[in-house]
Amino acid sequence: MAIGGGAHSTWGTRFGFLMAAIGSSVGLGNFWRFPYVAGENGGAAFIVIYLVCVVFIALPILMAELSVGRHARRSAVGSVQKMAFNAGAPGIWSVAGWVAMAGGIFILCFYSVVAGWVVAYVFQMATGQFMGLSTDVVAGRFEELIGDTNAVIGWHTAFMIVTVGIVSLGVTKGIERAVTILMPLFFTMLLALVIYAAFTADMGAALAYLFTPDFSEIGPQTFLAALGQAFFSIGVGSAIMITYGSYLPRTDNLAGSATIITGADTLVAIVAGLAIFPFVFAFALDPAAGPALFFQTLPSAFAQMPAGQYVGTAFFVLAFIAALTSSISLLQVVVAFAEEHTDFGRTGSAVFFGVIIWLVGCGAAFSGGFFDLLDTLSGSVFLPLGGLLIAVFTGWVVARSLMRHELAGASNLVFNIWRFLIRFLVPIAVFLILAAGIASAFGVSLPGLQG
After folding, report:
1. What would the pLDDT profile of 286-342 be if each residue is shown by its tens digit?
2. 235 closest CA partner among 332, 371, 133, 135
3. How many domains does the chain have?
4. Which of 98, 113, 173, 351 is buried deepest, with most CB atoms within 10 A?
5. Which structural domain range is residue 255 located in?
6. Do the beta carbons of residue 198 and residue 207 sit within 8 Å?
7. 3-state secondary structure of 7
8. Is residue 3 part of a domain?
9. What are the mean pLDDT values of the chain's consecutive 10-residue runs (451 residues total)?
10. SS3 state at 4
11. Tell me, what CATH number does 422's domain have?
C-alpha cells in the first residue's frame, strides 16, 4: 500500500497495530519513571490509585484519540481539522493537534538523549565494566557519562540514526515490521528477568511492597502523582495515538483496542516492578531513590550479583527496546504531518525532522538547563494541554452521533460511560495535571498538594 501524500496506508495486521501502539506506550516511563514514582509514593497504595486513573482517565482519552485519527485518516493536525469540519466546528480546533504534536517533538528531543544513556549502559554492562565496583564508584560512572558531552552526543546520534532508519521505511515495512519483532522479544526477556529475580533475589519483599496497600501513605500528592503517571505512561496527549489511529481500518473495534493497549502498558509497568524491586530489596537499596534508581542504584546491584553482567545487559536491552518503540512513534507523528504538507516524501521527511530533533537534542546534551526546559514544556504544558483539548473537543464539540459511529464496537453502556467521563471527569483531572505542572515549573505550591 502506498504511503505518501494525504492518504495513509493501513496497518498490515491488527497484531501489528497493537504491537506498535503498545510499544509506543511501553517506554522508558515503565522502567525509569514508574518504579521510582511508586517507590516515592507508598508502593502498593500508589498502584491502586494508578490503576483507577488508567481506567477512568487515560483509557477514555486513548479511545478519543484513536477515534479522531481513524475518522479522518490524516496526520494529527489534519485529523482534528477534518473532524472539526465534519462536526460543523471552527477549524481553529486543529490547535489541539498542533499542541499535541509539539509536545511529542519536545519529548523526542530530550528522550533520545536519555535513550543514548541507555545504549551506553548496554555496552558498558555487556563488556563487564561495572562488575565488582562499589556503589559509589558505579554512581560516579553515571556522573562521568553525562559529564562527557561528546560521548553523550555520540550515543544520542546512534539512537536517532536507528529511529530515523525505521521510520523512513514506512508504516508497514518499517514501523510494523520492527515492532512485531521487538515487542515479542521484549515481553519474553522481561518475563525471563522476572523469573530470574524470583529465584535469585528477594521477590517476597517486592511482592509485599507492590501488592500490600498502606493507605496511610496516601495524601493529595499521591493522587496527583498517580494521575500524572497514568496520563504520561499510556502516551496520550502527544498525538501518537491520533496518528496511529489514522492507519486503522474501519472494522477495528477502537474500544477493544484501547483496552488492550492500556492493559498491556499497565501490566508491563507492574511486571517491570517485579523485575526491579527484588534486586533493590535483596541488596538493601532504596526503592524511593528517584531517577538514580535506574542509572545508579540498579547497576550497583548488578555489579555485585552472580551473573550480574548478563542480567544487567538484558535489563538495559529491554530499556533500549522500550525507548526505541516509543521514539519511532514520536517521530512518525511529525513525518505524517510532513507527508501531507511538503514534497519531501517519507524518507526526506524522516531525515529532515530527524536532523532537527538531533540538533535540539545536542543542545540538551550540552545544557542541563535546556534539557530541563524541554522536559518541563512537554510534560507540564504541551501534553496535558493537548489531552485537555482533545477531551473537550470529542466530548463537547463533536456530535454524539459522530463519536458513536467511530466507537460502534462499544456497547451502549460502555459508550455512555465513556461519554460521561470524557465530558466531565477527564477534563477536570487533566486540568489538575496541567495546573500542577505549571505551578511546579514556576515553583508555586498548590494548596493541599505539598508533600
Report:
1. 777 766 778 988 898 899 888 899 999 999 999 999 999 999 999 999 999 999 999
2. 332
3. 1
4. 113
5. 14-442
6. no
7. strand
8. no
9. 48 96 91 77 86 96 98 96 96 96 96 96 95 89 94 98 97 96 96 95 91 80 87 92 96 96 94 90 80 84 90 95 97 96 94 98 95 92 96 98 96 98 97 90 61 38
10. strand
11. 1.20.1740
Determine, yes or no, domain membership for 5: no
Q: Is residue 1 in a domain?
A: no
- What pLDDT digit, counting tens, does each position of 156-178 carry? 999 999 999 999 999 999 999 99
Q: Is the dihedral of CA 259, 43, 272, 388 positive or negative?
A: positive
Domain-embedded: residue 229: yes
What pTM does this model have? 0.94
Chain length of the chain? 451
DSSP assignments along 194-260, one per residue? HHHHHHHS-HHHHHHHHHS--GGG--HHHHHHHHHHHHHHHTTTSSHHHHHHTTS-TT--HHHHHHH
**H/E segment holding residue 61:** helix 59-72
Q: How many CB atoms lie within 10 A of CB 281?
A: 19
- Please report how the helices 412-420 and 254-282 are oriented relative to each other, as an axis angle in degrees rounded to 10: 70
CA atoms within 13 A on the CB side of 242: 36
pLDDT tens figures, 12-46: 999 999 999 999 999 888 877 787 788 778 788 88
